[in-house]
Structures are given as structure tokens and as C-alpha cells.
Amino acid sequence: MEPAPFTRLRGQRLVAATRRIARLLALALLAATGSAPTYASTEEFSSFDVERPEENDESLLDHLLTRPPADWHDEWERAPQAFRTAQGCFTSGQWHVDNELKLASPLGHKARFGLRLVQVESDLAAYENLDLWFLFPQRAGTLGVMFRPYYDKSRQDFALMWELGADTTRDQLRLVYGLEDLFNNLWVWRQTRVGESGAPYDRHPWEPAFKAALRRARWSLETEGRWLTLARRRVGLYGGAEPGRAQSLWGAWGAAEFEARALGATWTARTENRQARSTDQPLDLSAGDARRSRRLWQVELAARRATRRGLALEGRWLYVDRMQSRRPPLADARFHAIDRALQLEARWAARTDLIVRLGGLFDRASVSKSGAFTHGTRNESRAYFGLVARFGRVSLSGIEGIELDPERYEIWHHHDKGFLSLQTTF
């Protein structure tokens, strides 16, 4: 028995409405994921160094003050097109730079194109990645393909991604498989050079990565990680008198964060672990492998509470464990430092577009070393004040540091470095 015309018409309308809603949800998902994620590279792990921050005796305090205000986070995650930068003075000759740009554009009826540019120049690592993403929504999740170009073809990277949800949805799962240095000896007739050196891989690196998140009204839990598989390659100068060298690199990074709202405050707990290991020795084994290992592990606890009069209070405790070792023939050195930092800050919203910041920092750094440069065990303290202003779609934050403890070097009055953060959407 066929359904009545009215019933059939109502069913068709219901199907059409369902399709429209599904299309709108897909477009919303694309708007959230259009710029696509970034993932690490061999350059990030190879430049990772936990001893270099000792050139700046207040490195941890500087890193805390270069962070953008936490209030900017949601706007960044929800905007398909945005730019942000965090910069600051670390030493008389070092300027910290952390830039990130994301753009999105339609690639067809459903597909999207995403661009992500990350530039980092820091005492911990230095790298630059330009990721070009092509995203294709499916019935279950979104498929993505990424290309990362470099002048040296041997350094060019690719990646495959599948993602369910987005940075703004209740649940999210992202799986990425990075194809590092794809043209370097993957096909021998293609590319085996890095600049003027031949550097074919004996063991090619890959980089799996993941992100998982649960977000609810009163709490959220996020975890993510990346793993650079062990890479081995032979490097030799063409026509050079020196023998070739065997080099290897391995790296891993993982982080987890839990946030909850209770007792009128927002509580945050976060942990991070980053490791890298590399070797370098002559192919003829005339010297040792010059092994270098480094690891950074940290735990962070924070609480912030806002009052009805525009005043917000925030406290943070940070524990950072840094270890690095070098083996002969280049060096025989070991470095180990533990930082325990405390930060207290008050914020007052003078207007809807102007916030005044006032706070203080204290760090107890315990250092043990053997054959490594360091300022040694020390206490570092600093007061600071700053302003956060909004101009249209542009948010700007500036901080001025005030030196509290005596230093071994000259300080201009009590000025102790300045920091600047900017974020805008398009």
C-alpha cells in the first residue's frame, strides 16, 4: 500500500530539512577545521636544546610572560582565519619570536583549503613550517592531505590526517601520519642531497601524531602527542677530503591538560614531556658517536577567579625538569636543572576594551652540571605590570618587567625586559 500524497510530501520535506541541517553542520565543521592542525618536523626536534636557556638566567620567567592572555584562546580556536604573535626580550642579544597564521578558503562545494604558518625562534628550539592542507569532509569525519614545501626537496614533508570533531566540538579525535623528508632517498633516483651534501637515509623517519579531547560544560580534558621514529642517514661532502658521517635523530612530545570550574574558580592542571636524541660519527668509525640526549618534563597547576567588579585573580605553580647530556668526542658534559616557579597576578577590567595587569614571579632553579655552562643554582624574582587593549578585531598585550633581585650585570634603573602579544581575526 503506497503512502498518501501528504504523507509522502511530508517525508520528502523532512529528508530535505535533514540534508540542509547536515550540510550546515558540515560547513560549521569545515569553518572550525579549515586551517588544519600543525605537526612537528625533524627541524623542531633537531634544534631542541634544554641547556641553551642557561644563557638567559631568567629564561623560565621570560617564557611565562611571553604567553598570550588566556582570554584570547577561545577566539583563536573558533576563528577560521587569524594571526597571533608573542615576542619578548630574553637577553641583550636574543629576541623571542613565536608567530602563527591560519587561513581557510573553499576548495569546492564541500572541500576546503587550509594554510598554517608557524615560525618559532626561541632558546629552546628554532624552526619554520608552512603547511598547505587540502580537507575533504566524509560521512564520518574529515580526511586531509598536507604538503610542506622547502627549497631543498629532500626536506619536503607530507602528511595524511583523519579527524572527527574539531577544536570547538564536545568530542574530538585527530590522527595524523607524517611523511618526513619524503623525497630524501625514498626513491633513490629522486633526491639524495641536502644543500651541497649527499644525505641519503638508511632508515627513513615517519611521524605519527594524535589529539583527543572531551569538552563539557564544567570541565574539559585534552591530550595530544607526536613521535618522530628513529632516522639514520649518511652525510658526505661531494669532493671533500673528510670522510662521510653517520647521523641519527629520534624525538617524542606529549601533553595533557585538564580544566574544571568549581567553587567559583577555574582550575587547570597540565603536563608536558619533550625528548630528543641524536648521534653523529664518522662512517669509518674513527671516533665515537657523539651522542646527545635532552629531555624537558613539566607540571603546571593554576587557578583563576573573577569577581563581579571586574577584578580577576590568578595563581600558577610550575615545576620544570631539564636534562641534557653529551658524549665524546665533541664533549663529555651533563646538565640537570629543576625550576620551581610561582606566579601571582591580578587583573582589573578598567573598561570593556582595556585590562590592567599587575603581578609577580619567583623561580628557584637548582642546577647540577659537569662540563656544561650555567648560571648555577639561583633565585630569580620579578614584578611586572601591563595592559591588554582591544582595537576592533585586534587584541594587544604589553608587559613591562621590574627587576627585584640583584643581578651580576648592569640593569637600567629597574627595567627587566619587555614583552608583546598580538592577536587578530580576519
Characteristics of this structure?
21 strands; about 425 residues; 18-stranded antiparallel β-barrel; mainly beta
Structure description:
11% of the residues lie in helices and 56% in strands. Mean pLDDT is 85; it is low at 5-9, 17-35 and 188-192. It has helices at 5-33, 42-47, 59-65, 73-78; strands at 82-89, 95-106, 112-121, 126-137, 142-148, 157-164, 171-179, 193-194, 197-198, 201-203, 206-215, 219-237, 245-262, 265-282, 292-306, 311-326, 333-351, 354-370, 378-391, 394-403, 415-425. With 426 residues, the chain is mainly beta. The protein is globular, with a radius of gyration of 25 Å. It has an 18-stranded antiparallel beta barrel. It has four helices and 21 strands.
In short:
The protein has helices at 5-33, 42-47, 59-65, 73-78, and strands at residues 82-89, 95-106, 112-121, 126-137, 142-148, 157-164, 171-179, 193-194, 197-198, 201-203, 206-215, 219-237, 245-262, 265-282, 292-306, 311-326, 333-351, 354-370, 378-391, 394-403, 415-425. The protein is mainly beta and 426 residues long.
Percent strand: over 45%
Rg, alpha carbons: 25 Å
Q: For the report, how would you describe the main beta sheet?
A: 18 strands, antiparallel, barrel
The dominant shape is: globular
Q: Mean pLDDT score, rounded?
A: 85
The count of β-strands is: 21
* Low-confidence runs of at least 5 consecutive residues: 5-9, 17-35, 188-192
Helix content: 10-25%
Number of helices: 4
Order of helices and strands: HHHHEEEEEEEEEEEEEEEEEEEEE
Helices and strands: which structural class?
mainly beta
Distance, first to last CA: 56 Å
